[in-house]
Amino acid sequence: MYNVLTLNKIAKCGTDILGDNYTVSDNETNPVAVLVRSASMHEMEMPESLLAIARAGAGVNNIPIKDCAEKGIVVFNSPGANANAVKELVVAGLLMSSRKIVNGIEWAKTLKGNGDQVGKMVEKGKSNFAGPEIMGKTLGVIGLGAIGIKVANVASALGMKVVGCDPFLSEANKAKLVDCKIVETNDEVYAEADYITVHVPLNDGTRGMINKETISKMKDGVRVLNYSRDGLVNSTDILDALKSGKMSAYVTDFATDDILGEDGVIAMPHLGASTPESEDNCAVMAATEVKDYLENGNIVNS
Ligand code: MLT
Predict the structure, then answer these.
(1) How many domains does the chain have?
(2) Into which family does the record put it (predicted)?
């Protein structure tokens, strides 16, 4: 019998895959594997029995990778399993960064109670909430993995020009791009893009990559979207750029105290992967990887 520890709620269709030889619980005693979503494992004492950790999600920065490598614990993730969910929210972010959807909705609520005057008030006030169309504008995609590719392709379908950069872009992934100009450096993306969306993991090479210096290379009025990790940006530099008008909007899936409520910031509580479809996909992929490893010794990161 294999004991599997779940540190978050993992979709049942995933744990069902494991089958009768597994007990799945939140009991930390003697697990051979952990299924985890966003819970941090950095402070956790790794049990001697632990052989594998599978992240039902893409990023693995909540897992102490080096520590696991030293202890021989195999770490899996679920690349691509939530890519469609994130892509859809990026589309919403592109539109929210351009059209004053959020402010407009908030303002409309303040009209409540004005009865049949509301129509007139709307006519008078709505010009404060105009914003440009995205069609014909250029979207820069930094990181052309599973999510970046989908974002690039949907942006093309919406009539945007797309320029992308990824030093690790494989030929197979390149072939999936419909109409994306591939450039060698992020600087080329910064120079060309009206909108920039970042789809890279957080590591020593990417931490703080959107900062005063890189923002200065962007077009005036640029709109920046970050659905990857909050550590990729320097928040102070983002707020300065918003105040000066260098940046028109910052859309982020990380609601952190330093940026909440600031003009030009649209912050969501990490909703990118929050769809039932994505939660199912991630759970199935993570559980399949663990099962294959424990039963067959295969290390296949789907
Ligand atoms: C991911 O790493 O897959 C996404 O950020 C979504 C999540 O953390 O659940």
Answers:
(1) 2
(2) Belongs to the D-isomer specific 2-hydroxyacid dehydrogenase family.
Q: pLDDT at residue 95 above 90?
A: yes
DSSP state of 259: T
- Give the nearest ligand 1 atom to 38 CA: 8
Those residues whose C-beta lies under 8 Å from the C-beta of residue 50, and which sit 6 or more positions away, are 31, 32, 33, 34, 71, 73
ipTM for the whole complex: 0.91
Residues 41, 115 within the same domain? no
Q: Which atom of ligand 1 is nearest to the CA of 58?
A: 3
Do residues 166 and 18 share a domain?
A: no
- Asked whether residue 242 falls in the same domain as residue 281, the answer is no
Measured in Å, residue 119 CA sits from the centre of ligand 1 at 42
- The angle subtended at Cα 184 by Cα 204 and Cα 301, nearest 5°, is 55
What would the 3-class secondary structure string for 53-114 be?
A: EEECCCCCCCCCHHHHHHHCCEEECCCCCCHHHHHHHHHHHHHHHHCCHHHHHHHHHHCCCC
Q: Ligand 1 pocket, 283 CB below 6 A?
A: no
Same domain, 258 and 283: no
User: What is the value of pTM for the model shown?
Assistant: 0.94
Give the pLDDT confidence of 222-243 residue by residue, as tens digits.
999 999 999 999 999 999 999 9
